[in-house]
Design a protein that fits this description.
about 290 residues, alpha+beta, 5-stranded antiparallel sheet, 3-stranded antiparallel sheet
Length: about 290
């Protein structure tokens, strides 16, 4: 008790307000606690992947920031109340001026509450596609996927969008099923090309590449359906035809695969389609003569 009394007397004697000293001490303690927690956690789990470490760093940083904000609000509560009462007329103007900031914070709260995505997920928001690498209270950073919608590989560029987009736009997440993904590719085809021949060739490439994974994926989908009560799609690959207009029709290729294999399978299907399309658009002279007969 004597030590605390001496400390209070010292704070009263110092020209610096006690709240400022308490704020500095609180922020320092939280930063030291975070550093210590990260050090101990990573030493206890040396086999963590880079994605897991990155996810833990992001979560710990955001939690620390929230604790700092709440702590500062609690320390300066009396001063904030006095300031709020004296500046009530300015409050409305501040809200208008910080509208975008408030929307970003609201979007961040929405993402956390609904668990829309986390670090490492493949998402698309308002036409922006990529793999999430960082999330904070104001924006989300991701590595770009594309630029073509049929290309799912990382382009090497980063994309950043404000979390306010989450309030007005839907979020598409590819890897909702964990290590597996249900992937769909839509291929426009000239209307005069024979769809039977194209679909037959695409199935001949797609099914042998997907069949080895079907049993494991089917078991995984059944577990997901039982645990999360999701209605899961079929694991078997499918190739379907959809009319579009008088110039093209669409071939829809849908298959289930491990996340790491979907680009390889999709590219094999696309390569086969281009080969078949070339043969159909450029028939050999013998085939043309045979058709004339």
């Amino acid at each position: 008790m004597e030590i605390w009394n001496m400390l209070d007397n010292w704070l009263d004697a110092v020209p610096i307000r006690g709240e400022a000293v308490e704020s500095v001490a609180m922020v320092t303690a939280l930063l030291l606690a975070r550093a210590l927690l990260l050090n101990v956690h990573f030493k206890r789990h040396p086999d963590f992947s880079i994605e897991s470490k990155r996810r833990f760093l992001v979560v710990s940083r955001n939690v620390t920031l929230l604790l700092v904000l709440f702590g500062l609000a609690a320390i300066w509560a009396a001063q904030i109340q006095t300031l709020a009462l004296s500046m009530f007329a300015v409050a409305a103007a501040v809200v208008v001026a910080t509208k975008e900031l408030i929307m970003c914070l609201s979007g961040s709260i929405l993402r956390s509450a609904t668990k829309q995505y986390s670090v490492g997920d493949y998402i698309e928001v308002n036409g922006l596609r990529g793999r999430v690498v960082d999330i904070n209270l104001l924006n989300t950073l991701m590595m770009q996927v594309g630029p073509n919608p049929l290309v799912g590989q990382l382009s090497g560029k980063t994309l950043s969008f404000p979390n306010s987009l989450l309030l007005n736009h839907s979020v598409r997440r590819d890897n909702i099923l964990g290590d597996y993904v249900i992937h769909t590719a839509e291929i426009p085809v000239p209307i005069h090309l024979d769809s039977d021949e194209i679909v037959c060739r695409l199935k001949a490439v797609l099914e042998p590449m997907c069949t080895p994974y079907v049993p494991a994926i089917q078991r995984h989908l059944e577990n997901v359906q039982a645990e999360k009560l999701f209605i899961t799609p079929a694991a078997r690959p499918r190739v379907t035809r959809v009319p579009h207009d008088d110039k093209v029709y669409h071939i829809i290729v849908r298959f289930a695969s491990p996340v790491s294999k979907r680009l390889e399978i999709q590219q094999a299907v696309m390569d086969e389609f281009l080969r078949v399309q070339y043969r159909l658009l450029n028939p050999r002279p013998q085939q043309a003569a045979h058709k004339e007969l």
